[in-house]
Design a protein that fits this description.
CATH topology: Dna Topoisomerase Vi A Subunit, Chain: A, domain 2
Number of domains: 1
Shape: globular
Order of helices and strands: EHEHEHEH
Structural class: alpha/beta
Strand order of the largest sheet: 2-1-3-4
CATH class: Alpha Beta
Largest sheet: 4 strands, parallel
Helix content: 25-40%
CATH architecture: 3-Layer(aba) Sandwich
Number of helices: 4
Low-confidence stretches: none
Oligomer: single chain
Strand content: 15-25%
Length: about 110
């Protein structure tokens, strides 16, 4: 099933961290770290007509992957964690909820409470 929104993250732990926050069906794709151009196109080809969102770590490998996505899928919206958290999986869930809500994802309101 192809959904309207596709969230691209680096790893399984990122996906597991985000899943309970979402209050809508969103396809979450893991790149599993470093990704090649061919693998990226293979992963995202079924979602060309979907809204693509990229949520990578605030580190060198995340930035490298982000640039690759930006080159091949310039319409993708990029979401960012703070550099102090470095990784999506270490970002507090209330901050993740804030970022996702700001990008028009439906989030569980319990995560928006500070």
């Amino acid at each position: 099933m192809v959904t309207d929104k596709v969230l691209i993250v680096e790893g399984k732990q990122d996906k597991l961290r985000i899943l309970p926050i979402l209050n809508e069906v969103v396809e979450i794709i893991c790149t599993n770290g470093t990704i090649s151009e061919d693998r990226l196109e293979e992963l995202l080809a079924p979602y060309e007509d979907s809204d693509l969102y990229v949520f990578f770590d605030a580190d060198e490998s995340g930035e490298k992957a982000r640039k690759l996505v930006q080159h091949y899928f310039p319409h993708a919206e990029h979401l960012y964690t703070r550099r102090t958290y470095k990784q999506v999986e270490h970002t507090p869930q209330n901050y993740l909820a804030f970022v996702l809500a700001a990008a028009d994802f439906q989030v569980n309101p319990a995560y928006l409470i500070r």
